[in-house]
Design brief:
Structural class: alpha/beta
Largest sheet: 8 strands, mixed
CATH topology of the largest domain: MetI-like fold
CATH superfamily of the largest domain: MetI-like
Radius of gyration: 34 Å
Strand order of the largest sheet: 10-11-12-7-13-14-16-15
Helix content: 40-55%
Bound molecules: adenosine-5'-triphosphate
Length: about 675
Amino acid sequence: MNTKRERSEVSLSLSGGRLAVATAGAPVAVPPGAAAPASRRSRSRLRWRPLGLVSAAYLVALTVASLSAGWWAPIDPERQDLAHALAGPSAAHWLGTDRLGRDVLIRLLLGGRITLVSVVEAVVVFAVLGIGLGVVSGYFGGWVDRTIGWLSDLLLALPGIIVLLMVLSVFPGETLATMVVLGVISCPLLLRVTRGVTMAVRQELYVRAARLSGLTPLRVMWRHILPRLAGPIIVQVFLFAATAVLVQGALSFLGLSAPETQGPSWGNMVGEAAAVTGQDGWLAVPTGGIIALTVLALGLLGDAVHDAAVDRTRSAAALPTRPARPAGPRHGSSPTAPPGPAQHPALLSVRGLTVAFDLPGGPLTAVRDVSFDVSPGECIGIVGESGSGKTVTARSLLGLLPPHGRVTGGCARFDGLDLTALPERQLRAVRGSRIALINQEPMSGLDPSFRVGSQLAEVVRRHRHVGRAQARAKAVELLATVRLPEPEQVARRYPHELSGGMAQRVSIALALAGDPALLIADEPTTALDVTIQAEILALLRDLRSRLGTAVILVTHDWGVLADVCDRAVVMYAGEVVEQAAVTDLYRAPRHPYTQLLLRANPHVAPVGDALPTIAGTVPAPSEWPAGCRFRPRCPYAEDVCGSQAIPLVDVGSDRTTRCIRSEQVGTR
Ligand SMILES: Nc1ncnc2c1ncn2[C@@H]1O[C@H](COP(=O)(O)OP(=O)(O)OP(=O)(O)O)[C@@H](O)[C@H]1O
């Protein structure tokens, strides 16, 4: 994983009739290992924090002094003293006096009020529009993105200065209107940055996991996307604030906004200083200096806050290195005797499920005519080589196919609903609550910026409509349910503080938050080492017996299948080729593919012998052979196997196979 750090080299320009805030420099990729070394973080702190702190102190002091100057000022800002006009700094007038003998310091503080209020107005409009539209555009994409993009291009095409001058001609001297318009015409700069980051964050697995858990788009944007935007937003907002100070100063310097009749402002004081430069050069120093200092402080503070935000995200996102899964075979695992299939009506009944992908050359069927049942509390394993259609089958049940994938036939009845025909809104209500998904990569499903307990509590609240305290208690209870020791303490940890096994338990706890009747686990132990794998499998078994949750386990590992599943659905080239109780399959496979897969199972291969393999690979959907799809790799194949489609036939109680030579397979 690469953590992106944005280097903010920025230019402000007010030229060519356009206002511009430009951020230069490409994002710099920071490798995770080097992402958060303590020494570099502390160096960064040493470099930025003092400047950031000084800038923050300056801005706070300036704001407080400006806003309160009207109450405490010892000198009337309008009191003229012509005898001391254009006097330099003295004990009575720390920054000297202007051409009418008025105190410069007090007038600058009072003038700051207009500037600061103007800047806040412009920044609020800029941030609300820029962030709001950018997030919505990046999150929803499609026509929403196109419409907002079109509006943004339109605003960018407007010559900013001319628009501001037009506004001032309609509302002469009106600062509020000018600043609102400045915020509106500048917001595309922030909008584009926000949109880009949102589009990237939206693809991250933890955001997808949050969507799958049933959170509304608004909640996902607020909770999981906005915090990730902090760095780029902060830089842009502070830069814009600096631009707004300059624009407001320039307009009032020209006498177009905040005219002197409304009291002193920094811009008109600079104008005054410019008029008397021939007589006295000092006046330009405090009046121009305060503008320069404020712009500088905003830039430095923006950088410091950005660095702090990036540091925080980076340290939260720095994941521990997971131990690699040992490559060697595991021995001593034998099929356990799982409980027989529950004698209940099916909880999920899949019939003739067919899935196709719309590709440039036309639709391509990837899964065809898949049928199986899952009873309450039962665990079904879907097994097969890579590319056999396991994941497509499982994901189509949850409506999680990629945009160009669609169910073209069959149905999947669950709780009286056909999942394949449900509109997305209804499907979202089912996902996470009635059916939950456990992913292969648990860590990627967790938001690195939030504590585990807070993420769990959020999903609990979504599904159970309880208060914060109850959700928090339920989160800790769920962590205890998945057998995490010291659940209270785990709830306070960030994802990067979890080991791989703990993260998978947390992701199972997340899946259980809605009290689902069915869990779909897609290779849930693939990313874990063998010891942790065994613990997670034990947990799944335990959850089944304690909570009665049914499980569909997608795997290519016969050991995993034997450990937890009652029944197995063997898939090859998008079709079910055999279906039976796991013990029956182990004892006597009735399809050549199952038989060869089992022989190639490292868990049962004799130590010291070369592991048998199946020659060839699973054909891509575009290359499926006519007749039996396994024929080119099958040792039992006959001519007739290629001349007709092979049906799935019953070969005993509750078992089916798609082979016309199943009798021979059972005997060899
Ligand atoms: N997004 C996609 N676009 C086009 N075809 C796809 C897409 N995803 C999957 N397929 C097709 O569907 C077939 C089955 O893929 P699937 O991911 O279900 O296999 P799998 O058995 O789960 O493999 P693995 O164990 O590697 O995940 C693939 O061979 C591929 O041709």
